[in-house]
UniProtKB/TrEMBL annotation:
InterPro entries: Glyas_Bleomycin-R_OHBP_Dase, Glyas_Fos-R_dOase_dom, VOC_core. This is VOC family protein. Pfam families: Glyoxalase. Residues 4-136 form the VOC domain.
């Protein structure tokens, strides 16, 4: 049996602002934007080439026994690309505030590209949910 990670809920304060950021700023495709019950809206977006989407939800009740995440509290969301410089240029072109390309070196984070699997950039959405982008040596389908 396969267990596939297909959707990650991203807690946000303003659904329309976040939809615009992810769709227009990050280039994610809008898959779903609908009210599924009175007062409950789900927006699902997918990064280009990804099999995993993000979900922005408004009015969605917490499941008993599972605490909610505050808007801006997500950390460690990571995307992979095969050309980190092109990814950074695309984000900058779309007016996303993004870090310079960095790598982990002897003294911690250092500017510039690193070796294989060691080139990153960072950005946050309007609520502060933190993303990293890592350069992969080949597309996922070839790994």
């Amino acid at each position: 049996m396969e267990w596939t990670l297909e959707v990650v809920r991203v807690p946000v304060t303003d659904l329309d602002r976040s939809k615009k950021f992810y769709a227009e700023g990050c280039g994610f495709a809008v898959d779903v934007d609908q009210e599924v019950a009175p007062g409950v809206r789900i927006i699902q977006l997918t990064p280009p080439g990804s099999r995993c989407s993000i979900a922005l939800m408004g009015g969605f009740p917490d499941h008993p026994g599972q605490p909610s995440a505050a808007p801006g509290s997500l950390r460690g969301l990571q995307l992979c690309v095969t050309d980190i410089a092109a990814a950074r240029a695309a984000l900058v072109e779309r007016s996303v505030a993004v870090s310079e390309i960095q790598h982990v070196g002897a003294s911690g984070w250092e500017d510039g590209r690193g070796g294989e699997w060691n080139s990153f950039l960072f950005f946050s959405d309007p609520d502060g949910n933190a993303w990293s982008v890592q350069e992969a040596p080949s597309p996922l389908s070839q790994r």
